[in-house]
Design brief:
homodimer, 312 residues, alpha/beta, Rossmann fold, 2 domains, 4-stranded parallel sheet, 14 helices, 16% strand, globular, pyridoxal phosphate (chains A, B), Pyridoxal-phosphate dependent enzyme (chains A, B)
Chain lengths: 312, 312
């Protein structure tokens, strides 16, 4: 397992390429929750999500030769933007495989950040085949959005910063989708927390992580009918063992609770957060007794939403 | 004119009752504008707008006897909420005269903050008569949203904080509606700026301040067909002389420019701002040459918007 010193080095390495995001609080949400909440605002991160951290670390860790040949990923979400922007900052080519069905706004964002898009039919097999073909042609390195140790370590640096500002935190809650943020946060808590525990939050509609922990093996989602579109993916063999060892609990929340928490953050904190980000606050509001009077950190994972399609 | 020391005292007096709001920056908006912008986020202020500052100062400056009898204002916007919350924090009764046509959401906000609403027909004469009647019955003191020196001084404290963090600012731009924020900011710049100038920004559709400065007398708006609903009011005899003496310029912007600037702030900074707040950034984007390479402060005045009725 990565040491505290190595995790500190990860943080130092990516610092020039990321924002140190602010930690916000809200009197009113504290009143409503009965808790003492600290929101680490990764929605203010470069390209609008924590994924910038892991992407930067993974690319920085490649050899100069590998960097020259570039990186490839298949994603239609935040990781595609993160890889594009991190690669651009470092002068590395970024090849992004996107399903032809991806919204134009997401393609445009990747293009803005300098990613080279290859479109493919919208299914996993075609995405993987297309990525493989690019790797063969260019020698580019494949980077996975959540099941890659360098990515996981990078994601953990948000919690390092949060614990530097609030060392007395008793919990840090993150949303869990592919498991990269949760595993990285749990590692950061292990090394930088004093009395802090790691908790994951996910929708009932995509509760693979909850079932994976319960059953001791990686479970999949049969349906993913959730507004939290960043949390539909499943855990991987790199992050699941870390989550098993270091995470105390996964709290599941209803869709209505996610929408309510999201509206509360928008209306009261005046910040724009993705539905996935609201899942962590929804967990606090659902389990009020557990968090009553506790200092609790919440990682606001991102703020990339379609403003013309809001759930309220 | 108020001295630097007196203005410092105002700031110290209200500090326990307000948030010290963060100053945010955006690489991308700096790139787009060619300027070096510092956004003072009063949308994160208590009740969501800078008006909290002036309201707190005005109530704190009343004698204990006057405080006991309460305060009254007629407003359907942020000042009603600010007076209600500031009065509640200080244990002072707040009487708010609102037009019967005011949206239920605004009435609800005033009630949440403890204001006692009296409804009246939606015209200025009835609002003033109703306020007068309440003053006679209760002995409450009338507070004007923008044409009151204590309110003006309170509003200026946002710029004091901004200049403490960024003493080298060359401009601070604020939206101008009733003139309280602009006059207060200009005073703060005079006493706390090193080489800073005060600029106002307003819609062409409500350009009374621009015409007032040009013609040397307080002008009114004949039409106010603007999305910036906080900027439809006119200057008053207390703030106009300060604006005349201390403000360098009023920049006017088109409605399309306001919407574009608002969208840019929402999408790129991930913060929720009112249309009125976006007017200041719209001014920078309209007059790029003027602000090119300059360190410029922007007061984001507030973040109270109806999320179900966005202009984009």
């Amino acid at each position: 397992m990565i040491t505290r010193q190595e995790l500190e080095q990860v943080h130092q390495r990516i610092l020039p390429h990321i924002h140190r995001t602010p930690v916000l609080t809200s009197h009113l949400i504290n009143e409503i929750s009965g808790s003492d909440l600290y929101f680490k605002c990764e929605n203010f991160q470069r390209m609008g999500a924590f994924k910038m951290r892991g992407a930067a670390n993974a690319i920085l860790n490649l050899s100069k030769d590998k960097q020259r040949k570039g990186v490839v990923t298949h994603s239609s979400g935040n990781f595609a933007q993160a890889i594009s922007l991190a690669a651009k900052s470092l002068g590395v080519p970024a090849y992004i495989v996107m399903p032809s069905s991806a919204p134009e706004v997401k393609k445009a964002a990747v293009r803005t950040y300098g990613g080279k898009i290859t479109e493919c039919p919208p299914n996993l097999k075609d995405r993987e085949d297309t990525a493989k073909k690019i790797m063969e042609e260019t020698g580019a390195t494949f980077l996975h959005p959540s099941n890659d140790l360098d990515v996981i370590y990078g994601q953990g640096t948000a919690a390092i910063e949060l614990l530097e500002e609030q060392p007395e935190l008793e919990y840090i809650i993150t949303p869990v989708g592919g498991g990269g943020l949760l595993a990285g946060t749990a590692l950061a808590i292990k090394h930088f927390g004093i009395k802090c525990k790691s908790i994951g939050a996910e929708p009932f509609e995509a509760d693979d992580a909850y079932r994976s922990l319960k059953n001791g093996k990686i479970e999949t989602n049969t349906s993913t009918n959730t507004i939290a579109d960043g949390l539909k993916t499943q855990l991987g063999d790199k992050n699941f063992p870390l989550i098993q060892e270091l995470v105390q609990e996964i709290i599941r929340v209803e869709e209505s609770e996610i929408k309510q928490a999201m509206k509360l953050i928008w209306e009261r904190m005046k910040i724009i957060v993705e539905p996935s980000s609201a899942v962590a606050l929804a967990a606090v509001l659902r389990e009020k007794e557990k968090f009553k009077g506790k200092k609790t950190g919440i990682i606001i994972s991102g703020g990339n939403v379609d403003l013309r399609n809001l759930p309220f």
